[in-house]
Design brief:
Length: about 180
């Protein structure tokens, strides 16, 4: 096995880490409404736990309003409870056949807390990438000991792996800074 194959094999895992990070950033509300804020909330419905997006249509008709239209009226109570119990700080209001959520204004203190949450998420994503790097490096070293990878190639692999980690680190940094800027507006 060539070292390039080992590194190539790690890219989808790093992409998953970036995708997860971006999804987590999408859940952090910045005063603007977005379906991603609530779509993955777990709703206890008839003894089963299901994501909200499987129980209702979620729309954003205005910049500061989320409208949730459950597929069945029996879902209302579970959805309302899930939103109220989440740590999103949102207050659902039942209005006939829909649940409305008005996005609250962000105080400066709350904005600072959100920036800290983004920074924490950035660090967790960086750690995930570093763990993947360590796993791949261990695999390359193992293959070198087994004679499947030459020693020169091992050091080339280390350099290429670090370039890949730096590339993904830059993506994490850019996404995080974009979200922090959005929060500060």
């Amino acid at each position: 096995m060539e070292y390039k194959e080992i590194i190539k094999k790690s890219k989808p895992e790093m992409d998953k880490a970036i995708t997860y990070f971006d999804r987590e950033l999408g859940k952090i509300h910045t005063g603007r409404a977005s379906a991603s804020i609530v779509e993955d909330l777990v709703v206890d419905c008839f003894g089963q736990k299901m994501p909200l997006k499987q129980l209702a249509m979620i729309s954003v008709p205005e910049p500061r309003l989320i409208v949730i239209q459950p597929w069945d009226k029996s879902y209302f109570e579970g959805i309302q409870h899930a939103i109220s119990q989440s740590q999103l700080g949102l207050a659902p209001v039942v209005d006939q056949n829909v649940i409305r959520i008005s996005m609250p204004d962000l105080t400066s203190e709350y904005r600072q807390n959100l920036v800290k949450v983004v920074s924490r998420a950035q660090e967790e994503a960086r750690q995930a990438i570093r763990r993947l790097r360590d796993q791949i490096w261990s695999e390359v070293q193992k293959k070198e000991r087994e004679g499947e990878v030459r020693e020169d190639d091992k050091f080339k692999a280390k350099d290429e792996l670090q370039e890949l980690v730096d590339e993904y680190g830059k993506k994490i940094e850019e996404s995080g800074e974009r979200k922090k800027k959005e929060i500060s507006l």
